[in-house]
Specification:
Layout lengths: L6 E5 L2 E8 L1 H7 L11 E10 L1 H16 L5 E3 L5 H7 L10 H5 L1
Parallel strand pairs: 2-3, 3-4
Antiparallel strand pairs: 1-2
């Protein structure tokens, strides 16, 4: 039986995620995501599916990276990602897109 358990690892300047990013994964992974120094990329290429909790986790990480002066690149688009980003009016950088929210 294949495992869908989510994981994250650091690869240079990237945080590389894999598996299913859902509520359980967000809860399990959050404690390991404290050290963000030098992170410039959130790599989602190996993520098979994401739900709203997974998008919230990624959006919070992206916001923290922007607060540190970075502009994180998002690599990959797992199942559900684009639809949830559109529903929550998130820009491709996972930043809240206030202009589209106002329309």
């Amino acid at each position: 039986m294949a495992s869908n358990a989510a994981s994250v690892r650091r690869d240079g300047t990237a945080l590389v995620f894999s598996g299913v990013l859902d509520r359980a994964a967000a809860t399990a992974l959050w404690p390991s995501l404290g050290a963000l120094d030098g992170v410039q990329q959130l790599d989602l290429a190996a993520v098979t599916r994401v739900d709203s909790a997974g998008v919230a986790l990624l959006a919070e990480l992206a916001a923290r990276l922007r607060d540190r002066g970075g502009a994180p690149a998002i690599v990959g688009s797992p199942a559900g990602f684009n639809e949830l980003c559109a529903a929550y009016r998130l820009a491709p950088t996972l930043d809240f897109n206030a202009l589209s929210a106002a329309s």
